[in-house]
Task: inverse folding
């Protein structure tokens, strides 16, 4: 049988490493957010401006480098770095908008399920189970095929991508809180369900929701990139990280920089946001924080 | 380990190409195979290997030189009647002998069409033919309504390739009657008389040709050909490099160096007999003023598109004309130009207020289609047009909301009628879809162009038609794309100048393998 000391030692080792990774990830996330926010100021070129006679020029340091296009030009002679910065901006905007919609839908339904119980809870949780059971990428492809891939439709699709996670978390937290004395006291004092939810339940489930929100942003970045890669997301000429990878894939053997720059940003973004989510969870969870 | 290796080797056996077997990685595979109803760029790749026409042409030559095929001789016995002697001893792939009845059935299914897809094809190119009749077991006659200047040209079309009557009628329902369901079934299990039988066909995925030993002509050089759809360009190139494919289709110019730099591979290509075009909806409420459409056309620098996207290998036409049209080729006509200053002036005259003009394109169907669309938006912006690309894989040419989009206008046969004419005839496909208008004056010019038996008169009438197009444009030919095929060094194959676009001709004399 393993002793407590046996299990504690690797834990300390892991934490020691993770702290450094977390710092790097948080710094990366902050830099990426800043780049997205200030893209119009730091992008060297208009992301849509073409220069047909400077197509497919490689990054700085290679033969045929076109001066000023540090990470090269794409198939229409557009500056890859500028497009990647604007693509990052759009991808992050979509991810946050999608995460907010998911939070609103999932949080509300989870709250209702947790407070009302009975058939309402059963119905909502059945919907949650259905959403979990069906691969959402297929659902998203179907919706975008039927209703077109305008930004509005895309945001809505990204929004409903992860609502069930919020619903499950909120329902579980509400049920847990419902049994606690201060909620019972509020009810005994005559507080209605809406008042109870607003003043006593919501403030106590903010932490897990923030963590879930962060993780959802990362997942939505991947989903948006997937849809755009398949041509059903952001439409040309507007760049998103996924659409840049998707449209550039035919040039991977001959002009890999078109794909590498946005692909590296997708990896950096999802990795750093994921680690950021873990960090927030660790801080929010008393049991983990004390270890 | 030995067992694993043995199992792997045995599993790989069916895919290992023998000396007379090749695999083609095609960008697209047809959803059905019926030469009568089809005129797509995808389908036209496949028919020539499996089907024959009555009259063929020497495809090694640009100028038409008619040669016997299923008919051994032909003559006009009246200005509107052609009599043809049929070849004896011809067999279909299912073992049936080809008879005069099969020929009459094949021709009349188009000339007296009732199956809607045949009706469409018959109307846009075979409308002058009334019927075919059997004279005896080896003689038939084809009747035209009016004197026909293009007899051999039209009798050698893919749409009048010969199919077996009894086999087709027996595919569904009453075996004595040709029903629509028979034609639908035929398109999934096609049978012809060509040098390669279609051994298997999975729509949209795969086609397998096997040499037909009873073919009436020269023996097919290949025992077997597998055509597999590989939609992604990068995947096709990889398939060629790894040896999974021996030939790949639709290589964009940007990819040529990738193949040519490999000592085991090479490319073949040509400016194919087809225009990538921009079409404009004359009836869209915001585009009814022809000055707006003229500006849309004048703003596009097609030479710049050619230099940038096709490395200068495409051909930019000054009018809707091609060298394959022989005596009817009119390179001196100037119907389409690049003049951004004139475009700006026309927009101002027309009171263009900056409304958005959408340009539809499929994502991948046309080589460089999406790139050209985006470049055109930049050119429009330079003259003040507020353009927007809409990626729509569904055809929008029949959508009243469509403002402009890309399309291709192939040369279905070597005549202006076979290129511009098929698409832009009075009551033709473009007018039927509601985006192109004609009037009595246009129809009169069209009639002279279509039916004059004097070449000079046809040229003059076509010039007048082009003037109408210039004044009220609904189409702009962008360029003849330079289409390329990649292949192993051991494969001796190249597109032939006498074919319609994209034909994969693997008949005797058209392909050989170095190690065979």
Result:
């Amino acid at each position: 049988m393993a002793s407590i000391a046996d299990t504690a030692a690797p834990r300390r080792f892991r934490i020691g490493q993770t702290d450094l990774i977390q710092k790097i990830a948080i710094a990366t996330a902050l830099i990426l957010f800043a780049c997205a926010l200030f893209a119009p100021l730091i992008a060297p070129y208009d992301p849509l401006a073409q220069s047909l006679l400077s197509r497919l020029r490689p990054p700085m340091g290679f033969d045929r480098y076109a001066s000023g296009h540090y990470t090269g030009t794409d198939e229409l002679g557009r500056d890859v770095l500028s497009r990647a910065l604007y693509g990052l901006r759009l991808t992050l905007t979509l991810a946050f908008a999608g995460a907010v919609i998911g939070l609103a839908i999932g949080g509300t339904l989870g709250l209702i399920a947790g407070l009302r119980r009975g058939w309402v809870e059963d119905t909502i949780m059945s919907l949650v189970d259905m959403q979990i059971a069906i691969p959402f990428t297929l659902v998203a492809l179907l919706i975008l095929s039927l209703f077109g891939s305008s930004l509005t439709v895309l945001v809505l699709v990204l929004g409903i991508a992860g609502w069930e996670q919020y619903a499950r978390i909120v329902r579980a937290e509400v049920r847990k809180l419902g049994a606690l004395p201060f909620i019972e006291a509020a009810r005994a004092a005559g507080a209605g369900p809406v008042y109870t939810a607003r003043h006593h339940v919501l403030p106590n489930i903010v932490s897990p929701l923030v963590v879930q929100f962060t993780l959802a942003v990362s997942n939505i970045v991947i989903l948006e990139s997937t849809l755009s890669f398949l041509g059903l997301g952001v439409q040309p000429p507007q760049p998103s990280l996924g659409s840049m990878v998707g449209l550039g894939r035919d040039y991977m053997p001959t002009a890999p920089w078109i794909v590498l720059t946005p692909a590296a940003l997708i990896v950096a973004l999802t990795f750093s946001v994921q680690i950021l989510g873990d960090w927030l969870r660790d801080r929010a969870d008393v049991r983990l924080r004390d270890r | 380990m030995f067992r694993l290796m043995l199992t792997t080797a045995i599993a790989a056996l069916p895919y290992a190409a023998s000396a007379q077997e090749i695999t083609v990685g095609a960008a697209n595979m047809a959803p059905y195979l019926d030469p009568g109803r089809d005129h797509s760029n995808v389908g036209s790749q496949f028919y020539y290997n499996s089907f024959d026409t009555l009259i063929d042409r020497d495809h090694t030559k640009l100028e038409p030189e008619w040669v016997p095929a299923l008919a051994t001789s032909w003559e006009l016995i009246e200005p509107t009647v052609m009599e043809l002697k049929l070849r004896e001893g011809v067999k279909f792939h299912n073992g049936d002998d080809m008879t005069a009845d099969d020929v009459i059935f094949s021709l009349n299914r188009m000339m007296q069409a009732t199956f809607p897809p045949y009706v469409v094809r018959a109307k846009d190119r075979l409308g002058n033919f009334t019927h075919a009749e059997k004279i005896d077991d080896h003689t038939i006659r084809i009747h035209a309504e009016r004197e026909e200047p293009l007899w051999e040209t039209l009798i050698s079309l893919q749409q009048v390739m010969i199919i077996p009557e009894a086999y087709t009628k027996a595919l569904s329902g009453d075996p004595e009657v040709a029903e629509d369901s028979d034609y639908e079934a035929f398109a999934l299990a096609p049978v012809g008389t060509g040098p390669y039988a279609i051994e298997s066909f999975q729509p949209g995925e795969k086609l397998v040709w096997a040499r037909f030993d009873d073919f009436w002509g020269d023996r097919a050089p290949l025992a077997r050909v597998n055509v597999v759809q590989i939609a992604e360009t990068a995947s096709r190139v990889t398939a060629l490099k790894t040896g999974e494919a021996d030939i790949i289709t639709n290589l964009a110019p940007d990819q040529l160096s990738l193949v040519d730099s490999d000592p085991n591979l090479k490319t073949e290509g040509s400016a194919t007999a087809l225009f990538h075009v921009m079409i404009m909806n004359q009836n869209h409420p915001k585009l009814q003023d022809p000055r707006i459409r003229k500006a849309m056309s004048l703003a596009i620098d097609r030479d710049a598109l050619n230099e940038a996207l096709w490395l200068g290998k495409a051909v930019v036409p000054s009018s809707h004309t091609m060298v394959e049209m022989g005596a009817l080729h009119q390179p001196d006509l100037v119907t389409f130009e690049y003049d951004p200053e004139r475009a700006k002036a026309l927009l101002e005259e027309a009171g263009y207020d900056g409304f958005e003009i959408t340009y539809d394109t499929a994502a991948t169907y046309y080589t460089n289609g999406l790139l050209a669309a985006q470049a055109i938006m930049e050119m429009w912006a330079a003259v003040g047009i507020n353009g927007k690309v809409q990626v729509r894989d569904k055809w929008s040419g029949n959508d009243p909301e469509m403002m402009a989009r890309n399309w291709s206008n192939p040369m279905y046969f070597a005549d202006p009628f076979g290129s511009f004419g098929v698409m832009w005839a009075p009551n033709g496909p473009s007018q039927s879809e509601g985006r192109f208008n004609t009037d009595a004056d246009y129809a009169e010019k069209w009639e002279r162009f279509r039916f004059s038996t004097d070449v000079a008169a046809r040229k003059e009438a076509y010039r007048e038609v082009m003037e109408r197009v210039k004044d009220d444009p609904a189409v702009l030919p962008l360029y003849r794309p330079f289409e390329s095929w990649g292949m192993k060094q051991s494969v001796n194959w190249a597109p032939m100048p006498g074919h319609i676009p994209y034909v994969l001709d693997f008949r005797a004399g058209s392909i050989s393998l170095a190690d065979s």
Observations:
- Chain B has a mean pLDDT of 94.
- The radius of gyration of chain B is 24 Å.
